[in-house]
Amino acid sequence: MKSVSIKSIVFVIIVAIATVLLAVKMYPEEKAIVVKPLKKSYKAGVVFTFDDNYIEDWYVADLLLHPYGWKATFFVTWYGSLTPEQKTKLHYLKDNGHDIAAHGYNHLNALKYYKQFGMKKYIKDDILTLKSAMAKDGFDVHSFAYPDGARDSTLDNELLNYFSIIRGTTYEEIPPQSQYCYYEGKRVVYGLGIDDDYKQFNIPYYKSLMDYAKKHNKIVIFYGHKTVPDADEKLETPLSALEELCKYAKNKGLKFYTIDDLAKL
């Protein structure tokens, strides 16, 4: 009985194989269709960002640059010291299509603070406090910029639990193809400073970065601080330079993005 059973099993296997071979011959297998994920395309553009609490100056800048259709992201800090009038102007900027974003409640150097007091305390003191205070005034912030550009990967990973996208900083006047101030589809981006006290302050150089962005379908990211008619102190972006860059971007057909826009690409 045992040998008969084995023969029967073998016979069944042979019949099954023959059936499969016959089916393959009659109905050849079609090539599998590999569905590749679609790469989201976006228009070449520029992002202007500004840090700290120079709200009156940003308001004036918007009045000047609004005709160019510009958009900017304003990373706000020292929120507890803002006046009702400043908050009203922030809402005005928000209603005009700009982003209001986070720059820490007390502008803490994130790297030094979390290493000295721990990550939990840093998040509580400078992040959660800010998000809560701004939310009460109708600002639901989704992006963050590091004060002083002080960051590491540990901070990035932690803060991405609270924000959709984070901006760091990069420096120096190097060839456009070697710069880090382009959006690369990641949640951590880097901006290049356009305040006139930076070594790389050079309008033709900034234009060359925009040219590179246009040619290679990239988005270039800049950051400044106080927007003023006459820059004679540190951390000031001349309005004339900013207007020239906005005009150049518009003439080149570059799209104005905010940091939150990048998170949605």
UniProtKB/TrEMBL annotation:
Transmembrane segments: 6-24
Domain NodB homology: 44-257
Matches recorded under SUPFAM superfamilies: Glycoside hydrolase/deacetylase
Biological process annotations from GO: carbohydrate metabolic process
GO molecular function: hydrolase activity, acting on carbon-nitrogen (but not peptide) bonds
UniProtKB keywords: Membrane, Signal, Transmembrane, Transmembrane helix
GO cellular component: extracellular region
Localisation per UniProt entry: Secreted
Highest taxon listed in the record's lineage: Bacteria
PROSITE patterns named in the record: NODB
Protein name in the entry: NodB homology domain-containing protein
Organism: Flavobacterium gilvum
Lineage: Bacteria, Pseudomonadati, Bacteroidota, Flavobacteriia, Flavobacteriales
